[in-house]
Amino acid sequence: MSKEPLYPPFHCSCTPQVVDLLRKLNCSLAITTFQAGKVIFISSHNEDSLVQMTRSFEKPMGIALKDDRLVVSTKGEIIHFKGSKELAMAYPKKPQVYDMMYVPVTTKHTGNLDIHDIAFVDDKLHAVITSFSCIAEINDEHHFTPIWRPSFITELSSEDRCHLNGMVVDNNEIKYVTALGESNKRLGWRENLIKGGILIDYSSKEIIARNLPIPHSPRIYNNKLYLLLSATSELITLDPSNGKTETIYQGSGFFRGMVEYEGYIFIGVSKLRKTSTSFSELAKSNNVKKAGIIVIHAETGAFCGEIKYESSVDEIYEVQVLPDIIRPNILNTRDDIHKMALALPNSTFWAET
User: Fold this and answer.
1) Element (H or E) spanning 245, and its range?
2) Inter-CA distances, 353 with 101, 261, 344, Å
3) Which of 59, 181, 252, 305 has the most CB atoms in a 10 Å sphere around its CB?
4) Residue 319 or residue 286, greater confidence
5) Is residue 5 part of a domain?
6) Residue 301 and residue 288: Cα distance in Å, rounded?
7) Considering Cα of 327, then 99, then 20, then 227, what sign does the dihedral take?
């Protein structure tokens, strides 16, 4: 009986097209894996391989980007980072290696809210607070400030009633929201997990699509609304005027986490938890041996390549693109070196020890 090869932590393989594409697009990928507790940056290293930067955080989930700012939601905190090319080039551990350094500047203590998607609306950070079935503004005054909840949610309560998970922001406005069920009782979404998903119009609170098989990561690209259907491994478009859907691509695995860049869609693919009773029905037909990222051509739905994790990563939540950055780094607050990285309004410094 042959044994599985042993791989170092976070070892991944990829098709040559992915390396070529990242080089062509002059960008890097940022992903979160709450299961492994990492934020991972992925870049092309040379003509035939990738290079990664992995950094530890407690259950990282959503990523929001705005200009040179990057925000990550974790189990009990939201961490704001400032991006600096100057700090990157002068990084004491590896000078002249990185072209962007994200350094932590503020940490917001939220408590355990099970935050999923986060995004900037104008200059304010908004978050899907899954445990309270609401969308909130994140500011300095409270742990969170609720601003919206579905019409069927009668009160704020930490009961994860509908598993609100996704949020579409377009032209500085929240347009649509996804949930895994239309329930007003504790964990009620689990009763019809596979086919209970819904899409909600944010402004009117009208449910414009039902019976969606575990929707995730709603996004608007080129005036089209895209969704991932995790239960059926589909990338679809959905017409909000009539609820009709069109499958752009169907594969295998649990699709979650999506970003479009220059006509290509990068999708996170997760394995299913073997111990999960909620997803045991899916595990029979919709599991994959390896988690990773697939790349789909948005216009044609053609498969353009993939990254597969051979070790450590089983589940991915978020996928983002870092434009015009080819070797990024990020610091957490566990290593004291972050205290030396200082970002001022018009300059940056590595402080003396």
Assistant:
1) strand 245-250
2) 19, 40, 18
3) 181
4) 319
5) no
6) 20
7) positive
Q: pLDDT (tens digit, 9 = 90+) per residue, 136-180? A: 999 999 999 999 999 999 999 999 999 999 999 999 999 999 999
What's the rounded Cα separation, in Å, for the pair 293 and 29? 10
User: How far is the C-alpha of 42 from the C-alpha of 27, rounded, in Å?
Assistant: 9
Given this model, what pLDDT does residue 121 score?
Answer: 96
Determine, yes or no, domain membership for 352.
Answer: no
Q: Quick one: pLDDT at residue 161?
A: 98
Q: Is the dihedral of CA 161, 162, 166, 170 positive or negative?
A: negative
3-state helix, strand, coil in the chain (%, to 5): 10, 45, 45
| Amino acid 281: pLDDT | 62
Residues in the chain: 353
Find the angle CA(162)-CA(165)-CA(171) to the nearest 5 degrees: 125
Using a pLDDT cut of 90, give the percent of the chain over it: 90
Run of H or E including 280: helix 280-283
Short-list 299, 314, 307, 177, CA closest to 237: 299
Q: Which residue carries 């929240």 as its tokens?
A: 174
CA torsion sign for 234, 238, 243, 249 is negative
Q: Which CATH number is 278's domain given?
A: 2.120.10.30
Name the residue range of residue 65's domain: 12-347
CB–CB of 291/309 below 8 Å? yes
- Say what the pTM is: 0.95
Q: Give the total number of structural domains in the chain.
A: 1
Residue 247 lies in a domain: yes
Token pair recorded at residue 7: 């791989």
CA–CA gap between residue 278 and residue 205 (Å, rounded)? 27
CB 88 within 8 A of CB 100: yes
Please compute Rg for the chain using Cα positions: 20
Tell me the DSSP string of 47-94: SS-EEEEEEE-SS---EEEETTEEEEE-SSEEEEEEEEHHHHHT-SSS
* The pair of three-digit structure tokens given for residue 223, joined into one six-digit string: 């005036």
| Residue 3 included in any domain | no
Q: Specify the pairing of strand 328-330 against strand 100-109.
A: parallel
In the chain, the amino acid numbered 140 is D
Is the separation of the CB atoms in 127 and 136 below 8 Å? yes
**Residue 273: how many CB atoms within 10 A of its CB?**
16
